[in-house]
Amino acid sequence: MPIEFLGMGAGNDSTETTPATTPFFDPAYAVHIAKIHEDNNWDHVLFAYNSATQDPSVHAAWVAAHTERIQLRLAHRPNVSHPTFAARSFLTLDHIAKGRLTVHFITGGSQADQAREGDFLAKDARYGRTQEYMQIVRRAWSGDSFDWDGEHYRFENFASGLGPFSGKRPGISFGGSSDAAWDVGAAEADIYALFGEPLADAASQQEQILARAASLGRVEPLRWQIAFRPIVASTDELAWEKAQAILGTFQARRSAGEVIDPVRHYTGKAEAAGTQRLLAAAERGDHHDRALWTALAKAAGGGGGSATALVGSYDTVTQAILDYHELGFEIFGLRGYDFIKDAVEFGQHVIPQLKQEVAHREQDRSAEELRANQAAARGRLLQDRSSLT
């Protein structure tokens, strides 16, 4: 099983710790940061979505036209366009990118942000719509003419004249940590994406999703992705100095009445199950496993999205990521607090040794042995966790 790395295809240089020095959407910066990832051993970049940002599909098309190798992960909300239109848009982008596209379907973790674009469906109903939407998009990519009469969409005799680039359809990525999300992802996703939880918690989610996939008779294996904020340096001590400085910035912004993450800011209980799980882990303690640090999830004021960090030296974080890789996670979403500096540092000092170590480990492993080892690792973690409760 390979190991791959997903960075942030940002449109400006603002983060939770630094204000923007670029325009809100800067095409030159967008190309620059994508090339930074392409030139420093990263495999993918993400084009995120919320109601206030630039259109990620146009952003991704611009980057596709100015890069050669980096894979494009396009976030897309089903409420913003009809699925037949979206299916053709995705194929058009994939032709521009020459087959480098994966679409990440997001159901939405904030009712307020959904409402800003006229979407007032309740959360579980949104998951039902997302599943129907993904089914239509996948069917449309086949090129066959078909009718549809579902709960959320109805049309007749649709067919796309444009087919997938070189006959291979784009990938389908999906995330979520609720029962409804597990059901949808187990049925429809090629890649299941989770936030960065402690090892045992992540393994528990995998088991829930795999059980649902088995009950559906699914035979295609799921690929697993997990997201963290990397805080690395040449030594553990220097990495923790960075981490404490970031925490201090969060605390100063909160004291000044600022909102750290406007998209996932909740005045009451967090709506998104993934955010609730991160906050629950943070309540159990700031430090988990080898290098997971959850203090930033609490400090963000509501949890935010990807808000847990892997903190440590290049070697420490390498070993921490290998722990997750042993559970079957092969794509790691990693977004620093200084986009370019962190992408270069991680890409030069951590990714090469991780890819080398994984290649070495995989030389003598068959696919069946690998899956058995992953299942055994999850079982050990879940047994250890149950013995503590």
- Helix proportion range: 40-55%
**Which spans have pLDDT < 50 for at least 5 consecutive residues?**
none
* Global geometry: globular
Q: What would you say the CATH architecture is?
A: Alpha-Beta Barrel
What's the CATH class label? Alpha Beta
Q: Looking at CATH, which topology would you report? A: TIM Barrel
Describe what is shown at a glance:
The protein has 389 residues and is α/β, with parallel strands linked by helices. Helix content is 47%, strand content 17%.
What does this structure look like?
- The structure is a single chain.
- The protein has 389 residues and is of the alpha/beta class.
- The longest helix is centred in the last third of the chain and has 21 residues.
- The chain has one domain: Luciferase-like domain (TIM Barrel), CATH 3.20.20.
- An 8-stranded parallel barrel has the order 1-2-3-4-7-8-9-13, surrounded by 8 helices. The protein has a two-stranded antiparallel sheet with strand order 5-6.
- The protein has 14 helices and 13 strands.
